[in-house]
Write a structure and sequence with these properties.
Number of domains: 2
Oligomer: single chain
CATH architecture of the largest domain: 3-Layer(aba) Sandwich
Helix content: 40-55%
Number of helices: 15
Radius of gyration: 23 Å
Shape: globular
CATH topology of the largest domain: Aldehyde Dehydrogenase, Chain A, domain 1
Length: 451
Amino acid sequence: MKISINPFNNQKLYEFEELNAVQLKERIVQAQSAFQDWKTTSFSERSKLIRAVARDLMENTKEYAEIITLEMGKPIVQSLAEIEKCAWVCEYYATHAEDQLKDEIITTNAAKSYVRYEPLGPVLAIMPWNFPFWQVFRFAVPNLMAGNVGVLKHASNVMKSAEMIQRIFEKAGFPKGCFQNLIIHNDKVKSVIENDFIKAVTLTGSTPVGASVASIAGSSIKKTVLELGGNNALVVFEDAQLERTLDSCVQARFQNTGQSCIAGKRLLVQNRIAMKFIQGFKNKVAQLRSGDPLDKDTFIGVLAREDLAVDLEKQVKESIKMGAELILGGKRNGTYFEPTILSDVTRDMPIFREETFGPVIGITIFETEEEAMNLVNDSDFGLGVSLFTSNRERMERLIPQCNEGAVFINELVKSDPRLPFGGIKTSGYGRELSAHGIREFMNRKTVYIKN
């Protein structure tokens, strides 16, 4: 039995019966059967259904947003924005998928030669709770537009979100089996990956889980895309525009109550502006309103589970024990964790070395560009980095020095349907979104016609 618990008040929300082994196999067979028909549909047919999904999302934004907020504690205004972003990715691929997957003509000695993109089949998506709609839609929409079908293993604490997503696709007119939610325990995931009908796996989650999934899929020679953890740096140079940079850094770290892989978790500030910037940052963070996630004025809600808050508390306390200075927050009450700032953070502290999944940030001061880049790259992760500077030459000089999947200049790292999204090192491999993402689970078939 899967149970959804409201992390704000600890009240039970929903119960869900898990699939037994027979039911699970039936769902996968149904996915394979649906794929045989779905792969033959035209882009215009697929676009029509995806646009119907977008309309449903916009017409029922409030209903879906409240489910997100109740299940995992996201402030309601941010939940509304998440649903709207899901509609955006629908419109983007409904418009661009056909062009992104058209035959790629290549001039050779043949009369005609080209690359043809063909769908692989049912794709398993293992998705997290922190963006319970967006993470799923950025997988499902491009894959359905490409002719694949999807089966979802969602996080156990957001099963109502998972149920609603399947209902949205079916309500829009997608054939039964094109998108299915699998209510299963983690111990059944291996059998799903190993099922012959499942052709590929995508996972957003922790690095250890990603390594395990990749190993299982690899033993069956099945492709994986992994979007794993992040420990993004926010690098503030002395010539940054102060007020805009402060706002960007606050948003980068504290939106979604800090529960984001692409959040800016390490704040690196150049020494000549450090005192002024840190004071301004502290003032802005102190003004963030905490409270009931359903209140539209709340910016800091609660963490999705209490064990996550406990883990965060341990990281903070250990870093303070090692010499970090607590300049704001630091207290926990159940699933709530105060917005917290630590200064004098060094490379060996948990707040620097580990991913922190909550409203906590550590500040490290640097003197030179070289030192800044050493700090940025001194991480096992490589998802993204934000550089704040007014110097265009510096921007161009530092971009290739960042060992990251993304470099954002004067902006927080964020996902955008038009841009590829993903990381390197232990942040994973492969890309989601854009033309790059829609081609991940396609057979790039080489065609050569001599005469």
